[in-house]
Amino acid sequence: MPQTSDAKKHGSLYQYAPFEPFDHPELLPKSHPARDLMNFTVAAFHREDENLSDRQIAARKSFATRVKDREESYGDKLETLTPLKHCKDDLQHLFDQLDEFFFFNRLGAHVSLKGGLDVVGKDPLEIDKRLEGETYSVKARGREYTQININLGTDAKLYEMSAIIGQLMHEMVHAYYGVFACDCEDCSSNQTIKLGVKDDWHGPLFLQLHRLILTELRRWGKKFNLPGLASLLADDCPEDKISQGAKERADAAIKKGRVLENPQLKNLHTLTSPRVLVAFTVDRRRVRVHPSLVAKQLAKEEVLRQRLKRVAQLEEEAAAKETARSAQAETETETEVDL
Ligand SMILES: [Zn+2]
Ligand SMILES: [Zn+2]
């Protein structure tokens, strides 16, 4: 792929295919160029239903069922704390399904998820008045993990379930890059047009993946007749536009940080280049995926599928031969006994 930067140093990502043993490829913490990570997941989910894995389909169904069963319980004032416990269960359940569908079920092992009333608020960058979610990396007792905190409501009142889902998937996109994106000098250079300014991380690769996942979730909403999901984040991302709030935040962070590297000068063309597999449209408000990204991936999967078929065939033939041989041997033994 043209954008794989420095393949030798980073090694290539494992093969993915929507069937065992290729459906949960290993991802290594802080090891993969962010763009490779984005292309890797987009190629695995930005596709027709018939090409999804059974586990993806099951995760999507489970997600939709939970939303259908539970969305009515949201949006109201809380009289006791019991409903909050159920909402926390929902949050973890939704996280797990999104992890399976979009992130190869690899995020969960690295993430600690906390939901509650007003668990987040203050913006450390002082750009927004209030935050509803946050994702950051924690180092404690030799272990490193990623913490996601999400407000389920404020002032003893629960938010709507769709608002919480919008926040959850936003934070999971941060976590995917935060956990697995390489932070070597090479990958960190010109970060403004990749993951964005340090401690903000709403750069182009965030905005693009966020938008593509949002598009997919809205598709689920239509498929399962869930209006809240079908119009997820409609205010912030009208129609097919990228997140305006996140984009504004990224721009504010650039201004605030007085970024030394001038994004006007270096590689800016990659943002909208037709040769880049996932890029913005020329107006930089929408995302487009080059058809070859998924087409090439599907072709690779077909090769793997054929290979597995051949192996299974050979095994079957070998087993048939073995059965014939032992049957033959048995007949011979029986003959001997008869004698
Ligand atoms: Zn690197
Ligand atoms: Zn964010």
Short description:
This protein has helices spanning 7-10, 34-45, 54-70, 82-102, 161-180, 185-188, 204-223, 227-230, 244-257, 291-338; strands spanning 111-117, 133-140, 143-154, 157-158, 278-280, 287-289. It is of the alpha+beta class and 339 residues long.
Can you walk through the features of this model?
The protein is α+β, with helices and mostly antiparallel strands and 339 residues long. The protein folds into two domains: 265 residues, no CATH class; 48 residues. Helices cover 48% and strands 10% of the residues. It is built from ten helices and six strands, in the order H-H-H-H-E-E-E-E-H-H-H-H-H-E-E-H. The strands form two sheets. Strands 1, 2, 3 and 4 form a four-stranded mixed β-sheet that branches. It has a two-stranded antiparallel ribbon with strand order 5-6. Helix 2 runs parallel beside helix 7, helix 3 packs antiparallel against helix 4 and helix 5 crosses helix 7. It is globular, with a radius of gyration of 24 Å. The N terminus is likely disordered. Bound molecules: zinc ion (ZN) (2 copies). The site of one zinc ion has 6 residues, from helix 6.
Q: Proportion of β residues?
A: 5-15%
What binds here, in terms of ligands, is: zinc ion
Could you give the count of β-strands? 6
Mean pLDDT: 92
List the helices and strands and how they pair.
Elements: H1 7-10, H2 34-45, H3 54-70, H4 82-102, E1 111-117, E2 133-140, E3 143-154, E4 157-158, H5 161-180, H6 185-188, H7 204-223, H8 227-230, H9 244-257, E5 278-280, E6 287-289, H10 291-338
Parallel strand pairs: 1-3
Antiparallel strand pairs: 2-3, 3-4, 5-6
The structure holds zinc ion (ZN) (2 copies).
